[in-house]
Amino acid sequence: MAIIYNDKTKTFMLQGKDLCYAFWINDLGYPEHLYFGSPVGADDLRFTRAFGATSTAATPPGIDNVPSYNAYPSELSFFGTGDYREPAVQIVNPAGDRLCELLFDSYDIVKKPKISGMPSMDGGDTLVIHLKDKINGFAADLYYTVYDDCSVIARRAVYKNLTSGDIRLERAYSFSLALPDRNYEMLSLYGVWAKERHIDRIPVHHGVVSIDSKRTSSSATLNPFIAMLRPDTTETHGEAIGINLVYSSSYVLKAEVNPDGTTQLTGGINDFDFNWRLAPGEEFETPEVVIAWSSDGIGGMSRAFHDAYREHLINKKYVKASRPLLINNWEATYFNFDVPKLCAIADAVNGLGIDTLVLDDGWFGKRDNDSSGLGDWVVNDKKLVGGIKAVIDHVHSLGMKFGLWFEPEMVSEDSDLFRAHPEWAIGVPNRKRCYSRHQFMLDLTRKDVRDYIVKAVSDIIEQNNVDYVKWDYNRNVTESWSYCLEPERQMEFAHRYALGLYDICERIVNGHPDIFFEGCSAGGARFDPAIMHYFPQIWTSDDSDAEERTKIQYGTSIVYPLSVMSCHVSVCPNHQTGHTTPFDTRAIIAHLGATGYELDTTKFTDEEKAAVKLQTEEYHKIEDIVLEGDLYRIDSPFDSEFFTEAVVTKDKSRAELICYRRFASVNNEIKRVKMAGLDPDAEYMLEEKGLRAKGSTFMNVGFAPSYPHSDFAAVKYHFTKV
Ligand code: GLA
């Protein structure tokens, strides 16, 4: 990893693992992008410069006969001085004009600093480019970090008011990135409840293609991620650039094709329903954007993200540690449980390799359905005679751990908390609030609300010896407004909510380092890198049907490592889809992540118990490959009847291949699978077939998996280097 500055050419070259990023400070003092892609020599790259027609373009202020700012490939585009593309920053100066001309002032190379109040990647040497408006002193610092162990660049911007009056930020994106032409397609991950992170891929076109969230949450609707792919980029070949925001509130990501045939990417905090007052001397930090590069297709890009997040973003204590293998009572009981029932659910799996009981929604306040009780984090002793302590003591006596569900950011209208503090719920005075799942949201922009949440949750987990917390978030903001913000600051709400969320995560999650925290959001509706920083695993979807999960898990893996995906084996017919899939298939698909079970174990037959025991034993044998290994997606369930994936240890000594076929027919076509990710020159044993061959043989010749003859059939194979 190196950050090289060439004084003669004024070029900054960042060399990371398998990538290079270069820009120079041009004669105007403008940071002009030169290159992003595979490693190249530390050469003078200015020969790559090219400009389209400039006849009617505005020149930079006061300088005639040079190209317009509109023509330069930009490191940070700004508004009002001839650049008509999407600006990364837009301000209102004290005098009311909206100009800022951000030109090079100086640079530093530093150890990567943390972003105050927001999660970000760690490690890596960091280049800081200081830009400044020479007239009024408004300034921006651009941060770039490269790594020698993963093919990503982390970028962000910090905006500074060095003027003597208030500045209003109307837009404060994290980055601009210039791409050399317009021959790209944009891949994004869309979804909805129980159908998270499905894949869209469309060509970019003249004008702006964008995705965003206006929900004060990163959302299931569109994950804060885009990939820019060449039209011929496939899973295994071709250029892929991935852009992922480390952010959980409203965001936007844009690709703009310009008349000169170049493409500019911008994005960050959504400027829709946003502005921010910056007093003299104040700074505004933007969330980090992680930009991955691969010349090995979408698969290579995914592995770059997986490595980056496992090495530099997710809690080091847990990221590679064996996970709780749990039984969750939600689909077993919903709200209808008592102490004997919960103990019986734990008893039924004792000795089967399941080591944690997670008690889901309904243990607190007045909460016998989803219309009341949120916010009252007091054990419901009437429902749970002897309290949760009775369950916890029993579970601990079995040698198992205990997990507990919370939805800390929420309040029910029918709750003691709402009756005492209606002003703590987000809403506008004199207007009714929208209900969503019958509940309201707490105003995390307020310190008193955050203090209440931190104390309420901490008291329960500390007083009850809780080992594991499932942190849910089941609705999005409406009527965003806070009693504590001045009228002209109300459009700071969405970002302040994110800062409030990170504050309570710091205090609750990081404040209890020995408790394992899982994230959740009405299934997987807040599955983003910032959440991942605090929660080493996230519930991927409320849809636990194995067939649907092949798509959800495939799409999620485009960016996020398998270790973050929480995946459960549930009952059939499936509660969401009504599908009946084989028990083995459900386990094979759920074991491609951090796994668990979510069904009424008291109804297990002896045969099912034996199956679970075997499944958990087999899971433990491959858990390290799933959590730490490289993922190779082979067949996509979006494009075929098949879902085929391989996970391979980093040293390529062991691998697992998962093969899934949607429907059985009288004469199923022969489907050969070519293994991926092995060392081509090493000999491997394919255990289930008793076959010994070179990695290159398994990867080039392939073999036909022996699917059981049923719909939704799955089979797994194991390769060991000999
Ligand atoms: C959400 C979660 C579920 C479950 C319920 C409880 O829907 O995604 O897993 O915890 O809430 O109300």
Strand and helix layout:
Elements: E1 2-6, E2 11-16, E3 19-25, E4 31-37, E5 89-92, E6 102-111, E7 125-133, E8 138-146, E9 152-161, E10 167-179, E11 185-192, E12 195-203, E13 207-212, E14 222-229, E15 240-245, E16 251-257, E17 263-269, E18 276-278, E19 283-285, E20 289-294, H1 297-312, H2 316-319, E21 326-328, H3 330-333, H4 339-349, E22 356-359, H5 387-397, E23 401-406, E24 410-412, H6 416-420, E25 439-441, H7 447-463, E26 468-471, H8 493-508, E27 516-519, H9 529-534, E28 537-539, H10 546-556, E29 565-570, H11 583-590, E30 594-598, H12 606-628, E31 630-635, E32 642-648, E33 654-661, E34 683-686, E35 691-694, H13 695-700, E36 713-721
Parallel strand pairs: 21-22, 21-30, 22-23, 23-26, 26-27, 27-28, 28-29, 29-30
Antiparallel strand pairs: 1-2, 2-3, 3-4, 5-10, 6-7, 7-8, 8-9, 9-19, 9-20, 10-17, 10-18, 11-12, 11-14, 13-16, 14-15, 15-20, 16-17, 24-25, 31-32, 32-33, 33-36, 34-35, 34-36
The chain binds alpha-D-galactopyranose.
Residues 330, 360-361, 370, 405, 472, 474, 520, 522-523, 539, 542 line the site of alpha-D-galactopyranose (GLA).
